[in-house]
């Protein structure tokens, strides 16, 4: 009888020890989880990942740990790893709003816009006033050319959060894509009032102003963008275009030189540097640039025309005629004459919009 009592007592002690150990593990997991969240908020992403790793090792079923680590992966540019974390979080907690939202953001960074929209759809179904999800869904739709649907999303975001800088920014860019540049500038003004350090908003406002012929104002925007994000290639290139339009050819050439250090195979930059050099009477140098532009873009009708004009200025009538004839033979000649070209504007939209969450 006594042996039975001792056995029961030992089992009770063991059970109590198991409970205490389990509570300790839970406590330690929550401790690392708390530390991970703090590091994430401070922008210490590598440290945050390490803390979330430890929490997940202690409690593999902790969904919020996977969400936190996924968010840190997104901020660190590890989008595939982030998606894997959000997938795991949703297996553990199928209605976790942040997991859908951040997974959509990660998919957007990978240009998986349809899949991203599906995740944002789920996020707003679970949280109907999720302003960030509406704004990011609008950005994804604009990248797919669904401009009217995007505008509706930005309106929803601003309905729930009237001072949402990202929604004003996204709607401004969408207006610009619809050639509603005055409306674009109004929205980008508001975005910059709310978020003065948004280099992308300065760049797109510069585009809109340049399209309206307000080149000096555009240059101011590009300068401000470059103060915030030095070396931004598109800002430098478009500042060169604006300077070229104002007849500031030497400074335009300096901008194009800088662009070509980063993008040595960009045909439009060679072409525009050629134009600036030609306007300074440096026709031989201009021809060298047009040659390079045509090596990179064989159907560049505008480059054929400009090279022909430069050759004509040097008295090379035969070569000039051949270039003008080549331009005339290109079906894209009229289109080329109407377009300045740019540096992957679609990719720039994605880069600027999905850099913040």
Automatic annotation (TrEMBL):
<dbReference type="InterPro" id="IPR011990">
    <property type="entry name" value="TPR-like_helical_dom_sf"/>
</dbReference>
<dbReference type="GO" id="GO:0046813">
    <property type="term" value="P:receptor-mediated virion attachment to host cell"/>
</dbReference>
<keyword id="KW-0732">Signal</keyword>
<feature type="repeat" description="TPR">
    <location>
        <begin position="29"/>
        <end position="62"/>
    </location>
</feature>
<dbReference type="Pfam" id="PF13432">
    <property type="entry name" value="TPR_16"/>
</dbReference>
<keyword id="KW-0677">Repeat</keyword>
<dbReference type="InterPro" id="IPR019734">
    <property type="entry name" value="TPR_rpt"/>
</dbReference>
<dbReference type="Pfam" id="PF00515">
    <property type="entry name" value="TPR_1"/>
</dbReference>
<dbReference type="InterPro" id="IPR050498">
    <property type="entry name" value="Ycf3"/>
</dbReference>
<feature type="repeat" description="TPR">
    <location>
        <begin position="63"/>
        <end position="96"/>
    </location>
</feature>
<feature type="repeat" description="TPR">
    <location>
        <begin position="199"/>
        <end position="232"/>
    </location>
</feature>
<feature type="repeat" description="TPR">
    <location>
        <begin position="233"/>
        <end position="266"/>
    </location>
</feature>
<keyword id="KW-0802">TPR repeat</keyword>
<feature type="signal peptide">
    <location>
        <begin position="1"/>
        <end position="21"/>
    </location>
</feature>
<dbReference type="Pfam" id="PF13181">
    <property type="entry name" value="TPR_8"/>
</dbReference>
<feature type="repeat" description="TPR">
    <location>
        <begin position="97"/>
        <end position="130"/>
    </location>
</feature>
<dbReference type="GO" id="GO:0009279">
    <property type="term" value="C:cell outer membrane"/>
</dbReference>
<feature type="repeat" description="TPR">
    <location>
        <begin position="267"/>
        <end position="300"/>
    </location>
</feature>
<protein>
    <submittedName>
        <fullName>Tetratricopeptide repeat protein</fullName>
    </submittedName>
</protein>
<feature type="repeat" description="TPR">
    <location>
        <begin position="131"/>
        <end position="164"/>
    </location>
</feature>
<feature type="repeat" description="TPR">
    <location>
        <begin position="165"/>
        <end position="198"/>
    </location>
</feature>
